[in-house]
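Good morning C.,

I know you're traveling, so I'll keep this short. The sequence:
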Amino acid sequence: MPGYDKPAYDTEGHSSRTGESDMAQGAGIDWDSLPHGGDLYGEIHLAETAPRPAGAPRAPMFPGLAACGVASAAAAWLSDHYHFPIILLGLLIGLSLNFIARDASTHRGLDFASRTCLRLGIVALGLQVTLAQIGALGVFPFLALLAVMLAAFLAALAGGRIAGQSQFASILAGGATAICGASAALALYGVIGKDRLSQAQFALTLVGISLASAFAMSIYPVLAAELHLTDREAGFLIGASIHDVAQAIGGGYAFSDAAGSYATIVKLARVALLAPVVALASIALGSGETTHAAPAPSLWRRLALPWFITAFLGVLALNSVLTIPAALSQAALVGSKALLLLAVTATAIRSRMDLLMQMGWRATVPVLTATFASFVTALAFAVLIL
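The tokens, ready to paste straight into the viewer:
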């Protein structure tokens, strides 16, 4: 309108009447890098960042859960018919459907699946191991197992530093490789937080761990046979060095029934150490969900375990003192796998493929170095101690 001096707005939508000087300064702005380069007056940005009014309805949970459930069901069907690792299939299908996350109505359901389902799945995993099973391993094999886990963790840290990756990516890869693969990665990511490690890096780590487990399940029994290892030695090697629980047990039984039984005990001992490792990570790193303006957490808050780890320990203790019916234990195992599959699939759907493509091969180095270190160390202890 003639005679009307329209105010200039910055990228946050705030008014500024500095006139032509601001226009001259704005000539060098890279508009493509801003959240909404074509949002002239900031309405879109303000609408997205404005707090939800009190009493306003929350976003629906069904769209995100439905998308995640369908993708997970497809992964389960393919795994059952083609005998491919189910977690890896969930990751790949979720990544192929990441365009779904562009619809904001799916976010609440996907976030619920990636966080709450994960934590419930970790708790249910406690019904698969008892303290008696850990005690049956023996002192020296248990100490050797701790050495294998430490070697994998340190190798991940070293590999990450050499490849120029963040310490959080290395901690995630080392902890997941040392304990129980995707389940441990999900638990550790809950402590690290998406503010310190992107979901794209997390998804890529899960892909690397799943591929390494599938490769190891196929190769390690053959190598153990070529090296003329005994059933006990092969069981320790496979149980101590293969990441995911299903692949470790399957690889052990691929060598022999006796090796499979021993590999199961070794692997379950690693699963039982999930809680102490996540607790140490929580104490060392603190919460990953705090803002810069928030005060530093107190020592008591940092020592407090995440609730799902406390619940995992409680379920493990209950399973150790009570005789759980086999049907209930099997149902808990199936439920745990289903919940973890939902969590993995939801995380993959929320991941950005463009960021995954930009990371390159260096992002997989921590997983590769940890995998190699765990195999070499486990083989050395299997030959020298057992």
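Safe travels,
E.
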